[in-house]
Write a structure and sequence with these properties.
The chain is of the alpha/beta class. The protein folds into two domains: about 1-255, Rossmann fold (3-Layer(aba) Sandwich), CATH 3.40.50.1820; about 260-384, Serine Threonine Protein Phosphatase 5, Tetratricopeptide repeat, CATH 1.25.40.10. About 50% of the residues lie in helices and about 15% in strands. It contains 15 helices and eight strands. The protein has helices spanning about 1-15, 60-75, 95-100, 110-130, 145-150, 175-185, 200-220, 240-250, 260-265, 275-290, 295-310, 315-325, 330-340, 345-355, 365-384, and strands at about 20-25, 30-40, 50-55, 85-90, 135-145, 165, 190-200, 225-235. The protein has an eight-stranded mixed sheet with strand order 1-2-4-3-5-6-7-8, with helices on both faces. Helix 10 packs parallel to helix 12 (about 315-325), helix 13 (about 330-340) runs antiparallel to helix 14 (about 345-355) and helix 14 (about 345-355) packs antiparallel against helix 15 (about 365-384). The longest helix has 20 residues, at about 110-130. The protein is elongated.
Length: about 375
């Protein structure tokens, strides 16, 4: 974990993700301009029809850079997707304290806090969605005071956000009960992460622990939940420990097939390898709104499992999937050739290797490789 935190810090200083740019919005509700920090993905201008998850940060003054660094590092290794990051700056004139004004008797926002709540839902998020190509998957994050405040969006019947990153939250009256109750009612998939540390502020830790117990007791089937209690972490250092954990939790379905996933799940299956691959990306699209072609390395992992378990008939299904994903490449014909070669139909295997030779190379598949495979099998035919 310490190594990952260090890498995030390095990424903040020299990241290739995107530059932070300034923006602002005039709020009629608040009667003034509010400053924003925005980061758009590298592919944003190249892929004009692509939409991206939104990561919205309260306390954007100091949370923006560590979140951007984590996203940049994770995306470099294709573990995290590209996202649009928008941070709301709240440090000017102690705005965060006015923004997060609660009624102590009800635990609900009042006065400037109520105005701020309506500003986010009625002005700021619509502004972001109009100006930038955001998908339906929206994450909100906050720290202590703002982490508690962001939970208010869960009180609505149709929450504005799908995912919540709560960093050492300062929980108002009864929020440790209300949040758990609300999370248990949603029929759609929801994501919730919270964290604390043994060096955190004591007044917060007790309520955070109760909220954790209440969420776990609710045992919601639609909730993706994680709580981290870091040893040796202070109220401030826990932020750097939490950010990668939260992002990797939320985007677990995005990550390519790992060695552990291959060894512990895929290779132990008796059948259904192609379906496993197809379902993996369907879950990604359904849960996170991210639609993408199946990675070539994920195809390779499934190929390896089929060969290891001698489930050669599944190459037909895999070929259908690869033809759909990469219709102009040799991948589909290569998988059909693998099917025929391993089921003993050498003539048809030669035919498909020759067909593949005429199509576009992809990944490690080359024209020379297809030609060599066809020639190798012709020798076998002649020997017979």
């Amino acid at each position: 974990m310490k190594k990952l935190v260090l890498l995030i810090v390095i990424a903040i200083g020299c990241n290739g993700f995107a530059q932070k740019v300034k923006d602002s919005i005039l709020s009629k509700k608040l009667g003034k301009y509010r400053e924003l920090s925005v980061s758009l993905p590298p592919s944003y201008n190249k892929e004009s029809k692509k939409t991206y998850p939104l990561l919205f940060l309260l306390d954007g003054d100091y949370l923006f850079d560590p979140f951007q660094g984590a996203i940049s590092y994770g995306n470099y290794w294709d573990d995290l997707p590209e996202v649009i990051i928008v941070g709301l700056n709240q440090n000017k004139d102690n705005e965060r304290f006015d923004d997060c004004t609660f009624d102590e008797a009800t635990g609900l926002p009042e006065g400037k806090g109520e105005d701020f709540f309506e500003f986010i839902g009625g002005e700021l998020i619509p502004y972001i969605q109009t100006k930038f190509r955001t998908s339906n998957f929206k994450i909100i994050a906050g720290h202590d005071l703002t982490a508690g405040f962001m939970n208010l969006f869960l009180y609505k019947d149709n929450p504005l956000f799908n995912a919540y990153i709560s960093l050492s939250p300062e929980l108002p009256l009864e929020m440790e009960t209300r949040v758990a109750e609300r999370l248990a009612t949603f029929k759609q998939n929801m994501f919730y992460y919270q964290s604390s540390g043994d060096g955190d502020l004591k007044k917060m830790r007790a309520k955070i622990a109760v909220l954790d117990e209440n969420i776990k007791a609710a045992n919601s089937s639609t909730l993706n939940y994680k709580y981290d209690d870091f040893k040796g972490a202070s109220h401030y250092s826990l932020v750097l420990y939490s950010i990668p954990n939260a992002l990797y939790q939320f985007f677990a379905s995005y990550q390519p097939i790992s060695m552990s996933e291959y060894q512990e799940k895929i290779v132990k299956m008796e059948s259904g390898y192609a379906d496993y691959l197809k379902n993996k990306y369907e879950v990604l699209e359904k849960a996170l709104g991210i639609k993408m072609n199946i990675r070539i390395n994920d195809f390779k992992a499934i190929e390896a499992a089929i060969l290891k378990n001698k489930a050669y008939g599944e190459f037909e299904q895999l070929a259908q999937l690869s033809h759909k994903m990469y219709p102009k490449t040799m991948l589909g014909d290569y998988h059909m050739a693998m099917y025929y070669e391993n089921t003993g139909d050498i003539k048809n295997a030669v035919k498909y290797y020759q067909n593949a030779f005429q199509l576009q190379p992809i990944g490690e598949l080359t024209k020379d490789m297809m030609l060599a495979k066809a020639d190798e099998l012709r020798v076998q035919i002649k020997k017979k």
